Amino acid sequence: MFDLKITGGTVVDGTGADRFTADVGIKDGAIVEVRRRGPADPPLEGEAAETIDATGKFVAPGFVDIHTHYDGQVSWDSMLEPSSGHGVTTVVTGNCGVGFAPVRPGREDWLIGLMEGVEDIPGTALTEGISWGWESYPEYLDVIGDQHFAIDVGSQIAHGAVRAYAMGERGARNEPASSEDIAAMARIVQEAVEAGALGFSTSRTLGHRAIDGEPVPGTFAAEEELFGLGRAMAAGGRAVFELAPQGVAGEDIIGPKKELEWMTRLGREIDRPISFGMIQVDAAPDLWREQLDISAEAHAAGSQLYPQIAARPFGMLFGFPGHHAFTHRPTFRRLKAECSRDELAERLADPAVKAAILAEGDLPPDPNLLFDNMFALVQYSLERIYTLGEPPDYEPTPDRAVATIAAERGEDPLATLYDLMLERDASAMLMLPFFNYFYGNHDAIREMLLHPAGVVGLSDGGAHCGMICDASYPTFLLTHWARDRHRGDKLPLEYVIRKQSHDTAQLFGLSDRGVIQVGKKADLNVIDMDALTLHAPHMAYDLPAGGKRLVQGASGYDATIVTGVVTRRNGTDTGARPGRLVRGAR
């Protein structure tokens, strides 16, 4: 008697091996049988409480997203969307050196400001949504451990929270750590890993700043501090040292290679994986190749360096529901303050309103709005802002740039931008790729994805709520890279699935999942590849306190299964909550 059978599907098992037809039997949350079938073979024998006919569909492992920032969202969203709608069955939080534990009583708002500044998650949503109820990191895990989710959740301990807890205001303001400070932080980190943290994360990029403008605690940490915390992490058990390195956002093209030198030495000493964010930056568009080569050399020398790479261009989405070039125009500001969302869309479509906004100059940026000083600069980047379309095309050609469209129409480029944002009842989004698109195609990304040291990450599923929705990476990898790409070579479906199941799971020591094999955890997807569609991103207003975020859905997932339980069927949440906290390597 099985709890669940999946019959007749084409299994892509996550190892990278060729696909095969098989039936999968599941019992007590685990895969208990994988029966290969030829055309004339009978189905897997045995009754089942539920049977899914997967004929003509693909059966793949559940996807493991290792960079999500759901640290706050776990308090209010048991579904953990958007990730759970894209075949993800395990997420890892606590990235980029920001998190919510440990916390001194009374310092909760400071941690919220740190997360809001670095990751663009509305502070009002975090304030209303987070339940708190902990001080130490083990206590934080206990609170998460009492909850049930649609998918599994793993957590890392964050340098910013550790530094502020151990050093107080000195740590929060990035003052140098003494040997006593390092020892105190080391005790916290080791305790966290012993309690079940999957890793330790830090940030060293100047682009990561708290809501008050201060760099994340740990940004300027000396080598003694980094090595001390790395050793403590290793002493606690199997965990990953994760970081956003200097220069990852292009602010310093020398920093990334300097960072790799100490990372290599640390990895060799502690014998633990070290994973760092890596993207193509315009200031040095081929630097990423050197970083990959150094990572490969480090592996050969016994140091586990894993660049975390993005599956598509890394940038921002612009449109009237979110951020755009007219944010600073007086008429727009007045209408936004006066009108409901529906009323605002109607007013923006009024030719008189359009003429008024286009004729106005910009007001000064609002110092209380995160990134507000950036948005006026959009009007000077129209040759790099592209229409996204439905379904969205993340590898657009130059003819889809706003400046090109305006020239073809014989219009003022800002007027064209305005009209493009008015499409779909003023909900259309356009894309400005900051990174990973210097040469105007995805060839560099493909090379990164093919590198043996590269691991898919950086989705930021719960972060940058008003700017991106990259939680959809798993679906994009399947649709764009394995099926639809037309401007260059694709990637095999078997490879694409392995990269976001087996490989991401193995990095964090989660060897109980990520492949379809007997004895492994029954986390699976049944996917109609012919119907699989990534929908256009749109703004939702479903965060606590009415906060907004960009979300992006998908269709074509017939079923997502977590620990043997169907959690989503035909894209709809079933209400089942088999997901649990994942404590430590498996």
UniProtKB/TrEMBL annotation:
GO CC annotation terms, alphabetical: cytosol
CDD domains referenced in this protein's UniProt entry, alphabetically: D-aminoacylase (cd01297)
Domain of life: Bacteria
Keywords: Hydrolase
Coiled coil residues, start to end: none
Domain Amidohydrolase positions: 50-567
InterPro entries per record: Amidohydro_3, Metal-dep_hydrolase_composite, Metal_Hydrolase, Metallo-dep_Hydrolases_sf
Keyword rRNA-binding found: no
GO molecular function: hydrolase activity, acting on carbon-nitrogen (but not peptide) bonds, in cyclic amides
Name of this protein: Amidohydrolase
High-level lineage: Bacteria, Bacillati, Actinomycetota, Actinomycetes, Mycobacteriales
